[in-house]
Amino acid sequence: MSAEDLLAGSSISTALLVTGGHGQLGRDLVDAANRHGFGFVTAADLPMLDITDSTSVRAGLTSLVARARVDALRPVVINAAAYTAVDAAESDVERAYGVNAHGPAVLAEACAEHGVHLLHVSTDYVFDGDATAPYRPEDETAPRSRYGRSKLAGELAVLAAECPAHVVRTAWLYGAHGGNFVRTMARLERSRETVDVVDDQRGSPTWTADLAAGLVGLAAAADRVPPGVLHCVNSGETTWFGLAQAVFTELGADPSRVRPTTTADFTRPAPRPANSVLDTACWTAAGLPALRPWRDALSAAVAAGVLVDRS
Ligand SMILES: NC(=O)c1ccc[n+]([C@@H]2O[C@H](COP(=O)([O-])OP(=O)(O)OC[C@H]3O[C@@H](n4cnc5c(N)ncnc54)[C@H](OP(=O)(O)O)[C@@H]3O)[C@@H](O)[C@H]2O)c1
Known about the structure:
- There is one protein chain.
- Helices cover about 40% and strands about 15% of the residues.
- With about 300 residues, it is an alpha/beta fold.
- It has one domain (about 5-180, about 205-235, about 275-295): Rossmann fold (3-Layer(aba) Sandwich), CATH 3.40.50.720.
- Strand 1, helix 2 and strand 2 form a beta-alpha-beta unit.
- Helix 2 packs across helix 7 (about 210-220), helix 4 (about 95-115) packs parallel to helix 5 and helix 6 crosses helix 8.
- The longest helix has 22 residues, at about 95-115.
- The termini are far apart.
- Bound molecules: NADP nicotinamide-adenine-dinucleotide phosphate (NAP).
- NADP nicotinamide-adenine-dinucleotide phosphate binds near residues 20, 81, 83, 99 and 178.
């Protein structure tokens, strides 16, 4: 089934609020929902809507529900707001937990009060990375970092609330808006002869535009997909080294200028899982279209201008 088939008929009857709507994923979500003809789309971010502040959240939901009622639309919130600085979260614990754990709890409680469906975005970093196969939603979580623990707490708060909800874990995001690994590699290609990149962490690089199309598909079909945890990433897997080489190749540069290194030789404040590849069988089993292979997505993203310097 294509995303178009899935969205046909149901997108037009959906009113969507994207929290964290000015972030990397949030902006692509708004574009995707507008492109697919959602009945109503609005983006909210700091300072207009703070997900940690229940007054601010209730005001946002009240106006979403009022707007939905006018046109008999089904109100849905996609929460793309987060504290995403993985290394900074090791020391900035209070803020990370405030946004990633308390914020989703506030949102979920307000969604339950207003009868609004919540689609909450989470991360592969809830897993410890010791598995040898891709992670399924039901696999045991054991985050290594404070960021991962704060995101897991947010997932649990959403799942415990009485609103209809989906938690969607994704991974290794890059998009046109904001800083990310792919854009960093493009910058380093211009400024350095060689770049050392870790080759012992595996994951699923995911273009935010593809993820956004998948998430708005789920938002439109939310009442037909059993609630719970889902995984959504571009298919396939690689290491950060493999991704960096692919970026160099896309730029027409020699990929051998990227050299493999190890996590042990590239210490960071936050520990990362060695394997955080996500199994997306749950996504397709729910009738949702699989995202294309990560390498094809990267080519499409580059052609769409994801590497254009916006500074
Ligand atoms: N980036 C990745 O590689 C990755 C991987 C796996 C999962 N994810 C998950 O994917 C989701 C989207 O990530 P992203 O890369 O799009 O993140 P992002 O670019 O950092 O966007 C997050 C947005 O949330 C906003 N925000 C922060 N605190 C808020 C608050 N209290 N209330 C309302 N908005 C707030 C941020 O505003 P400010 O910029 O002003 O703080 C920002 O606009 C997150 O749930 C993240 O955990 C990301």
